[in-house]
Every structure is written in structure tokens, then in C-alpha cells.
Amino acid sequence: MKSYLTVNEILGRKHFVCSEVIAGKKGLNNMVKWVHIMEVTNVNKLLNGNELILSTGVGWKENKEVFISFLHQLIECRAVGLCIEIGIYTSEIPPEVVNIANEHDFPIIIFHEEVPFVEITQDIHSMLINQHYQMISDLENYSQQLNKLLLTINHPQEILTFFHKYTNLQVALRLNEVTTLIPHASPTKEKEILHLLNQIDTNGEQTSIGLQRVQVLNQDYAELYLLCHERYLTELELLALDRTATALAQHFLRDLYVEERRRIAETEWMTKWLTGELSHEKLMHYLEESIHPTAIDGGVVAVCKWSSDSEQPSFDLTYFKLFIRNLFEQEGFHLFTIEKHNYIVLLLLNKRSYKTWKKRITDGISRLMDTDYQKKRNFPIQLIGIGSYYQDLRDIGKSYEKAIDTIKIQEKIESSTTIHFYDDLHMFRVISLVQQHKDLRDVVMEYLEPVINYDKKYNAKLMETLKTYLACQGSKQETAKKLFIVRQTLYHRIEKLEKLLGSDFMQPEKRMAIEFMLMTYEYLFTVNSTSKLSYKL
């Protein structure tokens, strides 16, 4: 896959017979992308890198300081060498220039006789153009063979081996925090390579290490590396790296899709699991076919509901489940899914520490909401309810029931978030249970009706003030700050509240009752579905 010329190879051309390398011999293997004739001395904006410069020295003549400045500019612009014609304008190369060139491995080549610069550029440019056409042909050939290989392989290592044979360079794949090297290296060499991968510079400049992220469902699924210790990677090698990463993505997606189709058949026994109709023996049997139950430390159920007035998603739901499966597996969960009429049940079995399960679920859902994938898909999520965590998998049905209860409670309260954990709803759970046995509306109005009616008549915002005042534990300073009002305005509102609720409304028992009635009022009366957030997937 050689797609470049080196300075050393150019020295073998006919016009360089009378040339001599006087400095920077260690840089003779530098890649040459183009040849420029340059007689000006201010070149910072004229070069793109990897150019071989031809000059007569007319720009600096015998001015050593200008010559040194010119040389530093070439090095900073990543030129690969300087060819100087000794004669009319330049009779000798100052020792200081030679020292600087040797220090930076920058070749300086002198012509002892007059040479036709135009013929040199024509000769080298013809070679470079021919190599470019050959590079396109080689890349097309590589891509075709890679596509054929995708039809027969069963493991990504076969793609890595094929890539290594084409480039003859070190290949590495990092997947799920495990790095595979092709060819395999000794422990010492492997440690050195892993250190290089961790130090890789991805600022876009030339490098001897190439990195291409393997994206599946618009998520970084793995990382593919190509390493060359002797030189910078060529354009062809970087293009082949990109093609190989695409092939790996197709392979991973195919495997994930086949796996998802297989799991559709699991819906029946998982439904029985949730409803408690599955015996412990059969549950363990089914789990052993899918995972290693001994690696599971409990689980939790989440219910993901989309808007009931929205149309059925226009994309394959299997594709969506692949996406969230990959996302939650990165957070340490094994995911089972069941489709219902307008929601999906997520059975999340924990493979890591119990102490971090809630944070990892929150992180996973946050990543789901923030990805480009969900923004581009017509899939509006309305609510996500998460049940309680159970370490005994036989109790997973209880988690499902609580996740459903969480959805029902969410539908009755005005909330700034789409996601709720059952364990965090506290008083709303109590209100929900009481509401099933007694109508609370009359009790609520006994406490709050005077304030409600006063607000309706005068738009005095007493309900908002009461709620904030109680939340601030009776701190007037903090309440005024949160309401963005002056203290005098707050004092006036509190006086009104004392007249409407009684001067003892901040006494412990009455205060507790009023707080309960405020939450009940929010639960029963403040139902504003249009205020709920809607995320589109």
C-alpha cells in the first residue's frame, strides 16, 4: 500500500545526479507530496506541509540572517527538504544553517551545476500524480475485497488480520475496554503500544498513529488504530483505516441485529416473569440460555412511554432497541425488552455494584436524550418510570408494577422532568394509595380554598408564596430570594396567609397538614399535560 515518494527516492532521479546532501540526512525518508520553486523568503502562508522546495537563493543571497529565518519558516511549515542551486546567488551554505538543519533532520540538498527546475517539477509531479491514481485504484481494490470478506466472516479479528496484511503495520481494536492487537505482541511490547494509544494526539496534524472511531447507531462502539513507528501514516493508509472502521461497524451492527431478532422470541417467557407466572427453575433455565445468572446482582424495571396521541414510530423499533441495549450495556446492565401498545418495558439486570445502579441508569437515560440519534428520529418519549430495585430476580414483577405506578403518578402531577424513580416519589405514593380509598378533594378544599379563591380574585400569588415559604422552612430571607420579591412584599403576603389560614398555620401539626394538602392539590388538580417535556427519538 505504498502511496508516497520519499526525498531519498527523488534523489535517484536523473536531474539529481550532480546533487549532494549536506545536512539533515536522517530526514531523507520524509514523504514528499509536492515540489515548489520558491524564491521569496516569507513563506508562512504559502505551504501546506510535505513540500520539497527548490531555490536559487536569490531571496536571501548572502544574507545569513534572512537565510536562517527562511529555514525556520520551512521547518515550521513542515516542508520536507530544501534544494539549492549553488552559483550566481548562493556560493556557500553557512555552518549555522547546516547545524539547524541537522538538529531538525531537515535535508538540505545542493546542486553543484545549473539544473532545470521546471523539468524537475514536471518529472516529480508526474510521479506523484501517477501514484495518486494508483492509490485510488488500490483503495477501490481493498474496499471490494473487504466487502466480500464481510459476507463470510464470523469474528472481527478476521477483518483486523486482513487490514494488517494490506498495510503491514500494527493494528489495534479497542472494544469494551479490551484491546486486541494484530499481530500479537509480547507483554513488554503490548504495554508500550497501549501507552502510545493512550497518548494519541487527535488534533488533526500528521502522526504515526491513526485513530478511527467505529460508530454503531451514531454511538462510539469501538476504536480502531493503525500504528507506524518509522514514519507518518500515508493518505492511503488513513483512507484504508476509515474503510476498515466502516466494515467493522457493519459487522457489529449485523451481529447486534441478528441478536435482537433472536431476543424477540423471548417476549413470551419474560411476560410470564413480570406477571409472576414463571417458576424459579424455569426462570433460571431461560436466563442461563441468555446470560450467566451468577454475574447478575439484582435488577430493576423501567417503563418508557411515548405520547399516546403520536403516530406509530416510522422506523424499525428493533433498531431503537439495539440502540438502547448498546447504551445500557456500557453502563453495566444486561437489558431485556418487551414491547407493549404505547410503551416499552426495560428489564435491567445489574452486572456491577448495587450502590451505583441509580446513577448509572440516570446517566444512561441522559445520554439517550442527548444523542443525535434521538433528535433525528420521530419517536417522542413522554414519560420514563423506574421501579424499585430488587436483588431477588423473582421479585422483578414488583419492580414492574411500581414502574407502572410511577407512570400513573407522573401523569397526574406537573413536573419539569420526564424521568422519575418510584423510590423518590415519597408523599405522592402515599396520596395515590389514599386516593384509591377516599376522595381527597373535599379535605384539600377545607384547608386551601380560601387561598385559592383569593388568588383567583386578586392574582396575589399566595399559593406560590405558601409553597415556597414552607419549602424554605419558614426562612423569610430565602423565600424572598427565591420568589424574586422584596422582603416588605413577602411580609404583606404572609399577613394575608395568616388571615386566610390562621395565625397558627406554621405550627408543626397544622404545617404538616398544609404541606400534605399542597402536594395533594398538585396531584389532584394541577394536571397540565402540555407542560410535559417531549423528547423525539
From TrEMBL:
<dbReference type="InterPro" id="IPR012914">
    <property type="entry name" value="PucR_dom"/>
</dbReference>
<dbReference type="Pfam" id="PF13556">
    <property type="entry name" value="HTH_30"/>
</dbReference>
<dbReference type="InterPro" id="IPR042070">
    <property type="entry name" value="PucR_C-HTH_sf"/>
</dbReference>
<dbReference type="InterPro" id="IPR025736">
    <property type="entry name" value="PucR_C-HTH_dom"/>
</dbReference>
<protein>
    <submittedName>
        <fullName>Purine catabolism regulator</fullName>
    </submittedName>
</protein>
<dbReference type="Pfam" id="PF07905">
    <property type="entry name" value="PucR"/>
</dbReference>
<feature type="domain" description="PucR C-terminal helix-turn-helix">
    <location>
        <begin position="462"/>
        <end position="518"/>
    </location>
</feature>
<dbReference type="InterPro" id="IPR051448">
    <property type="entry name" value="CdaR-like_regulators"/>
</dbReference>
<feature type="domain" description="Purine catabolism PurC-like">
    <location>
        <begin position="10"/>
        <end position="128"/>
    </location>
</feature>
